[in-house]
Amino acid sequence: MPLACVDLLPWRRTASGVEVLLIERRQRSNPTGWALVGGRIMHGETIAQAAARHLKETLGAAASMRPRDFSRPDRVAEYRRGSKGDGGGTFDLDRHSVALNYCVEPGGEPRAGGEALGLRWFDGGELPAAERVVFGQHGLIAELAGPLAWS
Fold first, then answer.
1. Which residues contact 89 (CB under 8 A, 6 or more apart)?
2. Domain of 41?
3. Rounded to whole angstroms, what are the CA distances from 18 to 7, 37, 39, 53, 64?
4. CATH code assigned at 57
5. Among 77, 139, 69, which Cα is nearest to 104's?
6. pLDDT for 71-120, tens place per residue?
7. Where are the alpha helices (DSSP H) in 1-151?
8. Which of 8, 73, 129, 146 could form a Cys-Cys staple with 100, CB 3.0–4.6 A?
9. Angle value at C-alpha 39, between 38 and 43, nearest 5 degrees
10. Torsion over CA of 33, 47, 55 and 22, rounded to 10 degrees?
């Protein structure tokens, strides 16, 4: 049975446009790369609680997010078990999962922690190259970031 997960794309509006926050993390047995914030939804946890927990674990205790409707994800992604050579799209080397994806406006000053080795704000139109993104998330990140420029 697939695992239920939540993935977050923090974003902010600046004088030059919209920026999105990605974390640098390891993908098992592969080099580091950029990724969304997120992970499993634990038993008994709401989607909003899981999102808040992953945000704090990954971006620090001071990290928060503006309230939003978690009943309507911005995207849904299926992470197929296997490697990126198995047909493209999102993947996980160890497990099959389904992730609800949300764009969130963070509060506080993010600091890399937990699984995040680092973090960086990217201009919404200048995302990292596909080979620098782990779990096959490049297309998903671009899909999530695209509409932010128009909000």
1. 78, 80, 136, 139
2. 3-150
3. 19, 18, 24, 24, 19
4. 3.90.79.10
5. 69
6. 999 999 998 876 654 555 777 767 789 999 999 999 988 999 999 999 99
7. 47-59, 138-145
8. 73
9. 130
10. 30
